Amino acid sequence: QVQLVESGGGLVQAGGSLRLSCAASGRTVSSSAMGWFRQAPGKERKFVAAILWSGGTTYYVDSVKGRFTVSRDNAKNTVYLQMNSLKPEDTAVYYCAAGPTYYSPGYYREGTYDYWGQGTQVTVSS
Q1: Angle at the Cα of 100 from the Cα atoms of 105 and 63, rounded to 5 degrees
Q2: What is the pLDDT of residues 31-58, one digit of tens each?
Q3: Across the chain, what does the average pLDDT equal?
Q4: Which of 37, 91, 105, 107 is surrounded by the most beta carbons within 10 Å?
Q5: Is 50 within 8 Å of 80 (Cβ atoms)?
Q6: CA–CA distance from 67 to each of 24, 86, 90, 109 (Å)?
């Protein structure tokens, strides 16, 4: 059984930083497509970042490029999302997701991912 447990959310002032963690069990993060998504109040869940398979290629939505960094620790089987220069519009529930262990072009699509964490709230005050 695959489980993803996020942590690290909280309340931070604009310009501040947070690091989200996603500890995985039942799925090896280094061989999987691992994604971060977020859902703001009243809005659909949207892609934020991904780190893919053994090569570790990373992708970001344009609005977080240069501010967020997705990484992983293979020994801990954990994926991270380092968020710097946070803005009020980054406020959302952030979800970690685990996808296929084979190539799939849809790393930005929710439907690509099979397993989801419970989400962690990030609130950025102005």
Answers
A1: 50
A2: 999 999 999 999 999 999 999 998 899 9
A3: 96
A4: 37
A5: no
A6: 24, 8, 11, 21
Which token pair is 6? 């996020």
Task: Yes or no: say if 122 and 64 are a contact pair by the CB < 8 Å rule.
Answer: no
CB 106 within 8 A of CB 28: no
Nearest C-alpha neighbor of 117 from the set 1, 27, 3: 3
Contact of 118 with 6, CB cutoff 8 Å? yes
Measure the CA–CA gap between 98 and 117, rounded to whole angstroms: 9
Place of tokens 């090896």: 28
Q: What is the pLDDT of residues 80-93, one digit of tens each?
A: 999 999 999 999 99
Q: Does the pLDDT value for residue 69 go beyond 90?
A: yes
Average pLDDT (116-120) is 97
Dihedral sign of CA atoms 44, 45, 48, 53 in order: negative
